[in-house]
Each structure stands twice: as C-alpha cells, then as structure tokens.
Amino acid sequence: MTRDVDDQHVLAAVSTGRLPRFGRVEELLADAHARYRDDDSGVVADYIPALASADRALFGLSVVDVDGSVHVVGDADHEFSVQSISKAFVYALALEEHGHDAVREAVGVNATGLPFNSVMAVELNDGSPMNPMVNAGAIAVTALVPGASPAARWQYLHDGLSAFAGRPLALDVEVYESEAASNQRNRAIARLLESYGRLARDPLETTDLYTQQCALRVSARDLAVMGATLADGGINPVTHERVVDASVCRHVLAALAASGLYERSGEWLDDVGMPGKSGVSGGIVTVAPGKGALATYSAPLDDAGNSVRGVRATRFLSAELGLNLFASRPDATHDREDVR
Ligand code: GLU
C-alpha cells in the first residue's frame, strides 16, 4: 500500500500531557491493589505445563513515567515468563531492523478475529500471518531476526528485550523446556507459513527461538519500564538508552491497539482506551504515549486469556490517572454564547 503521509508529518502530532504528580500516582496504585487483591476469579493457564504451578495470590502493579519515576506496589518484583508480551518488543526490533513497509508487507496489521494460536486464520487468509500479535505473525516476525546462527539470533533478541527492560533478562529454563516439549501447534503454524512461502527461515529453528523469547523472565516493574520506552519515543526513561526510533513505537502501539488483548481487544480499547499487550502467564503492559506505562501481574485469566485482576486494575487506573486516549472535554476557549 502506498502511504500519503510521511513520518515527519505524523511525528509532528504527538500525544501530550503528563501523568499526575508522583504522590498521586502512588496513592492510586495502592488503591488499585487494595481494590482487586481479594478478587480470586479466573483460571491459571496450564497448556504449557510449567505455568500451572503459578501462585494465584501474587498481584503486582507498576507505573513508570517518561520522566523516569518508577512506582511499584504488591508483588511487582516477582518474575514470570513474558510469553506473548514479547511479541510487542520483538516486533519493535524487527521494525527498527527492516523498516515499517517491509515488515508490514510480510506480516500485516489487521486483527484475525480468531484465537491467538489459530491455524485456520492462516488458511482463511491465503497464508498471511495477518498481524504480529497472534502466534503466526509473531513467528513470522521472529524469523526476521538478524544473525548468522541460531545463537547469534538469540543473542540479538536477548540484548534487545533487555535494553527495553534496562537490565539483563534471564531465561526461565523450566518454562522454555516445558513449552518446547508441548508446542506442536506452534511448530505446525510455522510449517504452514513455510508452505505458503511466508517464513524467512527454517520453521523449527524459528519456533524454538520464539519459544525462548516467550520464556524470558520479567517482573511487572520490568514490563512498565519496557512499556514506558514505547511511550517515550523509543528512549528507555530509566537508563536513557535509545532502544528504537520514535516511528517504531507508533507502529507497535497501533498493532497493540488493534490486537493486543486477544479477542477482547475491542472491549479493552472501549474500556481502557490505550494500547496494551497481555500474555498467558498473567502479565499485561499498557502504554500511554508521551506519558508512561502501567504493568500488572496476576496469573488467573479470563476465558480470553487476559489476567482478571490485571484487566480490572488497568481499567480503574486508566480512568483515575486520566489516560484514555479517546477522552476529550470541550475546548476551554469556548465561551457560553459560543456553545449552543
Ligand atoms: N508462548 C505462548 C504460546 O505461543 C505464548 C502465548 C501467549 O502468551 O499468548 O502459546
């Protein structure tokens, strides 16, 4: 598709405003934690056997401001495997490496309307992976990772995701091995993409790399720093390292808005009004462009695969922190006669 708006023009129009003051954010985070701490609904994912042992009582929240302030409450430093949330950041690295047009051509950005691990979605769309937040699209994106060997490609991913977090992330070997032994469906998706000529590398090697990226350990605090890097035009607000270009962030957030919360992405946008990404291990990261990011961890999931406490706490905080991108109020320059 040809584009009639160049990046310079789009970047001139950015989301403005700030998070509330430091103390107010602290109060609201504590309030959100107290409100939803005792909500024990939902089911812990067990289709990857190692995830089933998660402690369903753990509940952590974190907000990171683009000014570098970090807020945490509850179990915000508990580490869990990043799972699908890695898709957002590997997509960012691929956009940075190959440019927007090439990645969009290879992967797409439209929602499938089908579950994240659907094989049928690939078949129904002539082999297109459709978008980078479903497994087919994420595997196609992982196939774009540069490097001369599987070890070099893993190093690239590990370094890139760690730069977003601002610290070296560790691989959860137990989760990796557990998923590697039970990911026949993802291997099938990769083979199917290969059969359509849609995979840039060997399907099994790519699925293995994808499985490793999903098994990197993060905390809610890490996810908030990673999200705040997308909110801050690609600069990590804690380490001040430039991780990706500002235009990359814009494209990642658009993809998250379209399909970051599985089949609840429309309801999420309607309720929360911001791009977000959730994963089956119970994390959610939500990004307020130009302001900061909010991350939650709690393992029990709803029937779409989103953390129950995480969705509720984010909905509450989006409203209280004033972050909904679709909210407006009448312009202050209208006087009374002006308004009919
Ligand atoms: N590694 C998981 C899978 O491919 C990620 C799923 C998710 O978090 O949505 O099934």
Mind explaining what this structure looks like?
The chain has 340 residues and is an alpha+beta fold. It folds into 2 domains: 5-80 and 218-320, 3-Layer(aba) Sandwich (Beta-lactamase); 84-214, Beta-lactamase. The protein is 44% helix and 9% strand. It is built from 14 helices and 7 strands. The chain has helices spanning 7-12, 22-36, 86-98, 100-107, 120-124, 135-142, 150-165, 173-180, 184-195, 203-214, 220-231, 246-259, 265-271, 308-320; strands at residues 60-65, 70-74, 80-81, 217-218, 276-278, 283-288, 292-297. The strands form 2 sheets. It has a 5-stranded antiparallel sheet, sandwiched between helices. A two-stranded antiparallel ribbon has the order 3-4. Strand 1 (60-65) and strand 2 (70-74) form a beta hairpin. Helix 3 packs across helix 7 (150-165) and helix 7 packs across helix 11 (220-231). The chain is globular and about 65 Å long. It binds glutamic acid. Glutamic acid binds at residues 83-84, 116-117, 135, 179, 186, 214, 279-280, 305.
